[in-house]
Amino acid sequence: RIKRGYEFEAVVKWFADRVDMIMLLFDVSKLDISDEFRRVILAVKGNDQKIHVILNKADRVTTPQLMRVYGAMMWSLGKVIDTPEVSRVYLGSFWDEPLHNDEQRKLFESEENDLYTQLACLPRSAAVRKLNDLIKRARLAKVHACLLDHLKRKMPSMFGKDKEKAKLISNLTAVYQEVAKEK
């Protein structure tokens, strides 16, 4: 573990909550997920729709090897990312050098174009995501207000406040269900 003057995971989470895209970069020859990389992946949890996985230097292996590498990478990621949806994976060789293996040239070019298109669409998709986040926060605020209103109505005005408060706290699940039925 590297000694830093700050909480690494908290900083990663802070950035992840504010960026429009998170790219997890893998190399075909280095698929292992280090402890630090695992902590980064866990810190970005909750931002699954922003995560895009890039398998770089895919031109260094043959097609059968690429299939094995892809499977191994997805298996390793599956142990860290606990989500029912599979993250988008871009295969390719993302640098200016010519391809070492032309077997999958069309695939790599298509994947590269998809990634660049995704990057070009970021300003528009970021606006939509921010609007969706605002709507989600507004709904949560409404739920919070309904819950507080319900709890206030259930509290006695004079005597037995502590007893009723303890009763409501101990039965919060029932309170949630009751509020849901009201609204």
Automatic annotation (TrEMBL):
Pfam families listed in its UniProt record: DUF5600 (PF18150)
SUPFAM superfamilies: P-loop containing nucleoside triphosphate hydrolases
GO biological process: endocytosis; endosomal transport
GO CC annotations, alphabetized: cytoplasm; plasma membrane
Domain of life: Eukaryota
Cross-referenced InterPro entries: DUF5600, P-loop_NTPase
Domain DUF5600: 126-182
Entry protein name: DUF5600 domain-containing protein
Species for this entry: Alexandrium andersonii
